[in-house]
Amino acid sequence: LTLFHTLTLTLTPTLSLTLTPTLSLTLSLTLAPTLTQFAR
To answer: How far apart are CA 26 and CA 22, in angstroms?
Structure first.
């Protein structure tokens, strides 16, 4: 349990650090066309 706890504690920040940029990138890629359409 302690090993699993330390693993999750060390993996969670790295996962969030790698997931957040990709999520924001996909969000911006999907939102950009609609935003540009609204801007016109």
So the answer is: 6
